[in-house]
Amino acid sequence: MTPRPAWSGHQVEERTEADRRWESRFSQRHRHGLLRGPKPPTDYTLRWSGPVRGIDGALYHAGEDRTGAPVIFVFSPGHQEVVPASWATDDWAEHRARTDGLFVPLGDWRRTRADYEDLVLAYLIQRPRELADLGRWVPVDTFTTHVRYGIFEAMLALHAEEELATSAAVEQRVRRSTEELSPRLAQLVAETMDTPAYLRRLMVTPSTSIEALDAAVHLVMADWKATRTTSPTDARHQHTGLPDDPTEVNPHLPTQLQDQP
Fold first, then answer.
1. By C-alpha distance, which of 253, 245, 255, 247 is closest to 137?
2. What are the backbone angles phi and psi of residue 58, rounded to the nearest 5°?
3. How would residue 155 be classed by pLDDT, with cut points 50, 70 and 90?
4. What is the pLDDT of residues 43-88, one digit of tens each?
């Protein structure tokens, strides 16, 4: 074993295979240009208090644009966006950090990606048997924080094993995958996200079959269109369950996806 250099403050911890899988979760989104960057900071004024970290691990930063209209900055490992709102977004940012109560969308006329992802997962965790349909065409990296990604990944694994993806079973599967991480990364996970609390909130968040399906369609189509815009060639190889030609009917897609422009 190579001696530790005298100047080193600590020994570098060896990365596990679980670490590598964790760190590569959103690599395809990055390759295809799906990590949306916010507009230049000069166009906006952010709260001096800084961002609020949600229980999903994302950062929510309230602010205003140059006209004084409220906006929310959302920073997550797989997506970044600036979303306008009808009222100040400070309370909504704090709302994302709560450990109980249902999730409320930013607004009806403009929602964040987190709102759409919440709707899909809330529907599936409350009705796990519906995973047989949505799980066939929604990619796991559609969910852009480690908490949401991990929950959907656990759901798919349980479904593949013909086990019911209940909230308790999903939480146990996520905990098991976290235990496979190196101690340093596992500690980071514990300090920056709260999967049990997120699952509890999903269980009380209303989501109908129509809302969940529309949200899933919105998410998958938004990624697919963005990928084709940034890299048309690579988009053909991205596994989204969507045809290269939108007019080409795929029998495995719901009707809402078969006639998208």
1. 253
2. -80, 160
3. very high
4. 889 999 999 999 999 999 999 998 999 999 999 999 999 999 999 9
Q: What's the chain's Rg over C-alpha atoms?
A: 19
Q: What is the DSSP string of 92-126?
A: HHHHTT-SSS----S-SSS--HHHHHHHHHHHHHH
Q: What is the pLDDT of residue 41?
A: 57
Half-sphere exposure of 51 (CA within 13 A, CB side): 15
pLDDT of amino acid 79:
94
Band the pLDDT of 22: cuts 50, 70, 90.
very high
Name the β-bridge partners of 80: 75
Structure token digits, residue 97:
């950090």
Q: What is this structure's pTM?
A: 0.84
For residue 210, the SS3 value is helix
Instruction: Give the three-class secondary structure for 234.
Output: helix
Dihedrals phi, psi of 8, to nearest 5 degrees: -75, 135
Residue 220 backbone dihedrals phi, psi, to 5 degrees? -65, -45
- The DSSP H or E segment spanning 73 is strand 70-76
DSSP, residue by residue, 154-203: HHHHHHHTT----HHHHHHHHHHHHHTS-HHHHHHHHHH--HHHHHHHHH
Q: Report the 10 Å Cβ neighbour count for 249.
A: 12
Question: Is 257's pLDDT higher than 80?
Answer: no
Q: Return the bridge partners of 76, or none.
A: 79
Q: Can you tell me which residue has the tokens 């709560």? A: 98
Distance CA 244, CA 225 (A): 10
Give the H or E element holding residue 220. helix 209-230
